[in-house]
Amino acid sequence: MAKKDKVPSEASQKLKEAEKLVQQRQAQRAAGKTQVALGKFFKDFRAESKKIIWPDRKTVIKNTGIVLLMVAVVGVVVFGIDRGLLAVLQMLYSFAQGSGVEDAENIGDLLLGE
User: Fold this and answer.
1) 105 with 113: CB under 8 angstroms?
2) Fewer CB atoms near the end CB (10 Å): N or C, the chain?
3) Do 109 and 72 share a structural domain?
4) Where are the beta strands (DSSP E) in the chain?
5) Distance CA 41, CA 19 (A)
6) Do 44 and 66 have their domain in common?
């Protein structure tokens, strides 16, 4: 009877490749060919920086305008909330003054009805 030809699975191929990579690294270390960590960092940094695609001037101006517009909108919203809360606090204070409360610290007592 003939042996069946087994096709190696993808997982076994990956395992063999990983084992081969480990053996190569061990051989490099044995030969003293390891790279200094700082040198490897700058080598990788240079390779990654070559992959950067810088936007053109029109895109930068458009995106900057959008950011400035959103900052202005959020600023106006926060300003409105701040003014609204200030008005509420002033109303509470004037309510406390009109109700005969001598000390502003007793506003909580007045509001709770004590």
Assistant:
1) no
2) N
3) yes
4) none
5) 25
6) no
